[in-house]
Amino acid sequence: MTEFTAAFDWARRHVADDRLPHAVLGVADADGILALDAFGPVATEATYPLFSITKALTGITATRAIERGLLTPNTPLSDALPEFGRDRDDVVRLWHLGSHSSGISEPDLDTRVPLRTELLTRGRDFPAGSASRYSTLAFEGIAALYEHATGQTWDAGVAEWGASIGATGFTLDPEAYVPVDGIELSPLDWDRFVATRAAGAGLFARAEDLLATGSDLLRTHRDGTAGVLTRAGLEFMRRPVTEGMARLDPYPASRGQDWGFTFNLRSRGPGLLATDGFGHGGWAGTEFHVHPDHGLAWVMLTARAGRVGVDTDQLDNAVVSRV
Q1: Are 104 and 135 a contacting pair, CB within 8 Å?
Q2: pLDDT digits (tens, 9 = 90+) for 279-291
Q3: pLDDT, tens digit, for every residue of 69-79?
Q4: 39-86, pLDDT tens digit by residue?
Q5: Is 184 exposed, middle or buried (0-12, 13-18, 19+ CB in 10 A)?
Q6: Burial 12-27 (b: 16+ CB within 10 A, else e)
């Protein structure tokens, strides 16, 4: 391998030093996978829990409905759930849900209450559009709007576009998957979490599914031709919408990022060489990022509760450097 040696050495070193329990790392361009390898007791085709990478995939699914005229970014959540917000004096819209600016109070990831019930009964932290605070529950609102507009569940929508590009591994119900190292010592009740089937955190997939997605988005950016998204849809998802908003923990303004529509935009990341990237990370260490100016997408799948001591800015820098 003459390119990406530093990136794959990074993964190998982190597994050898037990900073990661194992890892699958892959890099792709607009034409397909360039490099893919596994480190530790896993195979490259292993299925992993994606955690919050799910948010970007749900966002792609909703954007496809926007492209077809079934929704707009301004569609109110009350169109799908008329009982939502009866005690609020503001209007929560699709773009608020996708940019973490809805103000809906957040429950635990492993809540025992059905997410739709949580969505309808949670209070308000701040008026919609006035601040940004990370929310997984808001994606249940995106799921509700998508289902109301299309008659299809959000996960069926992901599976549909995934199959069109050969990414057939996206699922809420894997036959087998890599378990999360240390989950039994963490505050997260795994079985309850999986049972929520959260549109913001619940999908499982393989590295090759995410690399196929990254390649497709890079082709759309490069060629302007429609793939999973049209060029307009991709540009919409990449458009920063939280500029000027107060950014509340755990993503304060000092972290140098904004939110597009469900994409985390590292536009001013102080630890990054390249700030054109968009994508998402997940709770147990999963990462999926696309760098359109550099023509690259990369994925790292791992699974450790907490992921202490790992700086994936180092990995991003090594990938875009191609050394």
Answers
A1: yes
A2: 999 999 999 999 9
A3: 999 999 999 99
A4: 999 999 999 999 999 999 999 999 999 999 999 999 999 999 999 999
A5: exposed
A6: bebbeeebbbbbbbbb
Q: Is 141 helix (H, G, I), strand (E, B) or coil?
A: helix
Q: What is the pLDDT of residue 2?
A: 67
pTM above 0.85, yes or no: yes
b/e sequence 77-100, b meaning 16+ C-beta within 10 Å: bbebbeebbeeeeeebbbbbbbbb
Q: What is the rounded distance in angstroms from the CA atom of residue 145 to the CA atom of residue 249?
A: 27
Residue 190 near residue 180 (C-beta atoms within 8 A): yes
| Residue positions counted in the chain | 323
Question: What pLDDT does residue 308 have?
Answer: 72
> Could you say which architecture CATH assigns to the domain 5-321?
3-Layer(aba) Sandwich (3.40)
Annotate 49-75 with DSSP letters as a single string: E-TTHHHHHHHHHHHHHHHTTS--TT-
Rounded distance, CA 103 to CA 185, Å? 31
| Sequence ranges of the domains in the chain | 5-321
